[in-house]
Amino acid sequence: MTYGPDAVAHDASGKTVFVSGAVAGDVVRAVLDREEERWSHARAVEVVEPSPDRVRPACPYAGVCGGCPWAALSYDAQARSKRASVVDALARIGRMGEERAERLVSPLVSPGEPWGYRNKVELAAVRAGGRVTLGMHGAGEGDVVRVKSCMLLDKAHSGTVKSVAGALSYLAGSNGIDLERVGIRISRRTREVEVALWDRPGAFPRAQAAKVLEDALRPTSAVRVMQKGPAKARRIAGVECLSGAGSWGEVVGEERMRVSAPSFFQVNTKGAEKLVELVMEALRPQPHEEAMDLYCGAGTFTLPLARRSGFVSAVESYGPAVRDLRRNLESAGLDNVDAVGGDAGREFPDTDADVIVVDPPRAGLAEDVVRRLSEQPARAIAYVSCNPATLARDLARFEQAGTFSPRRVTPVDLFPQTFHVETVTLLERA
Fold first, then answer.
1. Which of 55, 262, 328, 405 is surrounded by the fewest CB atoms within 10 Å?
2. Is the CATH number of domain 252-429 3.40.50.1220?
3. Does 386 participate in catalysis according to the annotation?
């Protein structure tokens, strides 16, 4: 399997062919749909001989919905492939070699069940001829798939997708609302449900939207998130509370957190708890020590760090997340945190940390941030990553700087039925 939805084959000349709709070990008939100089792409049209790792997907929409690209691969095979992706990235991109990469990477940790693990799903909206269709993002670009339920949500709420899609399709079509997407967050722990409608600024039937959602779902929070700017550079123009709390609550370990609709929060709550556990076990922060938390979001690592260490410098660039962080710290009664809004490079804390957590987006760490981290006197860094390629690149930069070296890389399966894998890497002084 690739680090992606496709399986890999080679043609008679040895050229790499990425095959969608296949799993590793399959014999398939496939049609080439793209040919480049060094690689090709094909689409499987018939499974001639199934792989021993092929299973019948538990979800009837697998293959057409984009949410479960690995649903036809057994869970054991998924776990092997995800660990192998991390090893491969460290060996090739990190230039560590196969043998060292194998030693560094621990077995994959599975914190929960392979289905029903998500606390959030997003619906895509498509308007055609005055009619609005809401559904799951399809496997093909721009496709929208109408579903009766989503098996990635827990069983008690799997039908929520259909209820919300039906209610809002009617509302958007009859009122000319230009919805871009709809986010649904659900907590089985707090029993809070939030629906977030993402659109552009302008006239909006607030009362009617609140009534339609109340009749369909009775959410604890319904909000409207308005965006400005071109498609690839959207910025938040405002958030309106349509009904309820105006935010969503979840419990992660010992911490109760509130998160606004625009803020990032891990879609797998048990997975988030496992990440916190691994980070705290790796760093073992002490009451006399100072900590740093870069790309801290709404405080998933900041809160437990603050309870264990003397002081925390926390940096986050996204405005809504910074506001959520400050609210969560206040609610938790924690006053030993300096919460700073801004880019991690420009707002790098002017302090000497003993332990550091970094949890950057998929692009990884900027080269300047790696340099500044390498100048810290810290005894250890925990690097939480959602992208093996950028993790491997950054670990190579750390080693080149000569201060910190990776001791252990633990892959964590926050996203079963997909190729995505999270990792927690412990770096100690070289």
1. 405
2. no
3. yes
